[in-house]
Amino acid sequence: MKKILFTLMIVAMLACPAMAQRYRQHQVTIVDEFGDPVTNIDIITIIDTGTSNNSTIYPTRAGGTMTNPITTATTGSTFVQSLGLVSWFQRAPTYKITITESGASQSLTLDNRNETDTRFPFYANYIGAATTLTVLDDSTLNIGTSADFVHDWDNNNTRYVIYPSGDGGRLDFGNATVHTDVYFHAGDITTDYVLFDEGSLNVQFIDIDLLIDDEAKILIGDSSDVTIEYDEGNNDLDILSTSALDEIAFGATGDGYDLKWWSTTAGDYALFDYSGDALLLEDLTLAIGDGELLLFGDTIGTGTMSLSVATAKLSLLQVAADTGTFDIGVAGTDVPTTWHGETSGAEVIFTGDTVIVDGIDMTFNDGDFLKFGDDFDFTITSASTKNLTIAPLAASDDYIVSLGSDQSGVHIKAFGGTTGEYMYWDATNDSLTVVGDLALFTMTGTTKPFFVNVTGTVAGIAAEIQTTDGGITLDANGGSNGDLLLEAADDASLTAAGDFTLAVTGSTVLDDILFDRVVVTPTEGTTITLDAVNSGAVVMNVASAGATTFTLPTAAAGLQYTFVDNSLTGGDDLTITASSGDTINSGTAAGSIGNTADVFNQTITLLALDATNWITIASSGTWSQS
Asked: How far apart are the first and last CA of the chain?
């Protein structure tokens, strides 16, 4: 039993000559009521009387260093824990001392000006001389005049037994008006126990198993209306009623809980998920015999829809004909659905807002329609042999069939009857390609049956007919109607790399045809850059216009220019400069050649041999290269 602690404080002041005394010695011994040392004190603190300040203390009369509070391990410690003894030196004759019990669970502060035998605070209510009531091993404590209840400590079996003198007694904790919680501890005192909670009126098993033996029953109800029993012979847990019951309820309306039944195979179970209002069968089979119905609907026994199997046929039927609808998913929430074909991988998939048909043929008989639009605006049908019709359901010419959309076009390929011949619309390059000897257009109209009109404003070529390797023929037949008219609101050019032949059976009229091969400087001191389209031109300066520089285009084999210094005026010099990277007569890159003589009709002709080099093929007068 734990002893009642108190302190016996002894003050020893050693008398020495007045001049020799520097500090006063103090000594405290801590003993119990039997005079034995108290050995579970860890910390001792010396405080100045009348304050809360720690005193300055010393281990010897001569001084030295001593830590306050004092433990057995502090500097200058004189604390002998096994003897409950501590001593120190200080200047003041009085002090207060605080002693702290092991673990700092209790402490006591005393003032030596009022010395007394003092108990620790948690023994303040101690009354009487006896501190314990001890019953020896294998002895009993009898309650009642006739030992009606017996308390027995069975030391051999380490068992505490409470029993009545005979059957029929009752052991109460609390009474009809005063109640108390009752704990039965096992293992960890903080986590393993059985609690009778008088406030909540329940029994709590905290990390404790409740064991019901085989064939023992749990009886529920005033008249044992329901029993729960484990039948060991059949390995069954039986929940039975003594009379017919309407239901066994798990949870209550709006306050349910999950129920899980495990199967033999690990991970297989049936789960009633109360929060999801769902029944889950995890790797379990729900078996319904032939001819039996799985009914859907609020009405038990009938419902509104039924699912059944009879002779290898699965039927989803309305219980009442022409009532109810069959939905897969709800508005705004799709349920991906797959119908499989006979061949592996052949299937029809409904996912999102899309139907995917993979390896499955869709057949529409003659006269049957595939309809599009809220009002069936368009139909596709094969009403007769070899004829597929895409037509609006209503007779109208303002309907449009679009292939692709703006900036998201599609390639289109239409095959002919000859192998390898087809017409191809390339949406990427916005071009129409005809592969093979196809008559692209056969027009049978009588009023401008073929008409191409580019209506946009184009700074350059708006329409072009081009071959990669072949010629182009414009053939206007039809006798007097076979006229060919080429009109240009601006310039017209005919360029031939070879010969140009004009074969006319009738008369030839050339109306104001000009071959303008001259380029001149319009202003004084001007530099003109020539274009490749000017190839073959005769280029000259203008008298009194000042110095003129002509810059050649980037060299390309075959380009040719003739330059004429057409001025006798001093300073009207003509200079020809090659473009960056090109040379004239193997000179420096971007070099030049010019005429500074004031002599009439000084000429030079330059020809591009390749993509870099210009050479002089004819000249008159003096031309200097730089």
From this structure: 124
